[in-house]
Amino acid sequence: MKILNLILSCLFGADLEMPWALALALAGFFGLSRIFAKCGAAPWKAFVPWVRPCELGRCAGREKEGRTMAVLSMAVIALNIVITLVPMNQTSEIMVALVAVIIPIAEFIYSVRVYAGLCEVFDQKKYWVILFALPGLRVIPCLLWGLSPKYKPLWTVDELQSEAANFFSNSRAEVLDQGLTVNLEERTVTEMFEKKYLLRDIHMYIKPGHMVLLLGGSGAGKTTFLNAVNGYEKAKAEVMLNGRNMYKEYKDMMYDVGFVPQGDLMRGTDSVFRTLMDTATLRLPRNFTRAEREARVEEALKMVGLTAARNTLVSKLSGGQRKRLSIAMELIPNPTLFILDEPDSGLDGVIARELFQQLREIADQGKIVIVITHTPDRVIDVFDDVIVLAKDSARTGRLAFFGPVEEARTFFGRESMEEIVKSINTKEEGGEGRADEFILKYAEVQHG
Fold first, then answer.
1. Using one digit for the tens of pLDDT, what is the confidence trace for 317-331?
2. Is 120 helix (H, G, I), strand (E, B) or coil?
3. Is the confidence at residue 86, as pLDDT, over 90?
């Protein structure tokens, strides 16, 4: 009986010994399910504890606060289980008591924000928040708003999204025998039983020998996009490199893509030459002789300007030299596509400039180089093209521009790349909030 009472308490916030409380809780959830239906959301989600706050946040136009509220409500459930089932000493009782005070207060604060948003959606006075936020009175507004035709939302959850968020081009980039073609329909994850779009509707063709800058604000999906392109995190997409399908032939093509992350996992006790020889052993075909592996290592050293440091220990290298060694490791298999995530992180202007000049030389050998950097304007002259990803009103990463650098300046009406990013960032992030505008504008350009 104790366990059953705990389960009911966690699910419905009601005590088995008080049937009237359980009845009130269920009535409140039923009323909330009708509110969800009016808002164009799934009614059944009103009855699932950890899903209910997320859906409520969507209906209220407060999705972020709703997710936080869900986490806090789950923490309350976990806390109730601990208090009921786990024996504790005096110290742990004090700690649990403190947590038991803090979490409900935080949950209450976020619930006020969500219910205030719901009042805006239904065009009602904010005093309704008092009834919604108090568990004992919540059943009243839930049933009243849910069942009475007098209370109608000004818009549904789908209408909260702008034209750009609902727009889908259905276009495709042409697949050619040479170069990189990306036709990404969507990259999704499931959060709280809800399908969430991380990326959507991204199509482009990059020519061999081009060095490409990848721009976008925080959360626009830059790293997710790169992981989708290199096959590390597959999306619903077709990625073709020199006429071959990256997803279907991933095992055969995985070394045809060089990826340099922000950090590195190199052993400081190895020399530069030893590090590259180990890489050659792992990544080159087994039929390569030692002489052939050494020749590839010497070629990579020369390409990144580390020949003079070949016998230096990794631990003795400067920050710029370590970055170049990371690049040299990826050059060993002679990849066609080269992807770098902030290779100039932590480097001063002069060293960063030298690094990007070397990347330019790599691209000039017919390779495709895609780079993320947070200081693009100091090296923008070495790039051919720019990809601009932006979050639409549904917070999905979308393509706001792809093309030559000069055309990007004209398209956005901005001279610097940093100003371009500012124009698409949300106002909460200090930007101009024009992402949807440019997403639609670029779609019009694509379709002529």
1. 888 888 888 888 888
2. helix
3. no
With a CB cutoff of 8 Å and minimum separation 6, the contacts of 245 are 238, 239
Alpha carbon distance 7, 13 (integer Å): 9
Nearest to 44 by CA among 191, 193, 189: 193
Kindly report the pTM of this predicted structure.
0.70
Pairing mode, if any, of strands 385-391 and 211-216?
A: parallel
Angstrom distance (rounded) from CA 240 to CA 243:
6
Q: Going along 318-404, which residue ranges are E strands?
A: 337-341, 368-372, 385-391, 397-404
- pLDDT of residue 175 exceeding 70, the answer is yes
Q: Quick one: pLDDT band at residue 1, thresholds 50, 70, 90?
A: very low
Selection from 30, 28, 59, 60 nearest residue 140 by Cα: 28
10 Å Cβ neighbour count for 204?
Answer: 17
Question: Which residue in this structure is represented by tokens 């009845």?
Answer: 23
Joined tokens for residue 252: 């055969």
d(CA 230, CA 241): 10
Euclidean distance between the first and the last CA atom of the chain, given in angstroms as a whole number: 69
Gyration radius of the chain's alpha carbons: 28
Distances (CA, A) of 189 to 224, 234, 247, 301: 11, 11, 18, 40
Spatial separation of the C-alpha atoms in residues 326 and 306, rounded to whole Å = 11
Is residue 386 within 8 A of residue 215, CB to CB? The reply is yes
Angle at 181 between CA 178 and CA 183, to 5 degrees: 160
Residue 74 tokens, joined: 């789950």
Residue 376 phi, psi dihedral angles, 5° rounding:
-70, -30
Contact 385, 215 (CB under 8 A): no
Please, are residues 388 and 422 in contact by the beta-carbon 8 Å criterion?
A: no
Tell me which H or E stretch contains 368. Answer: strand 368-372
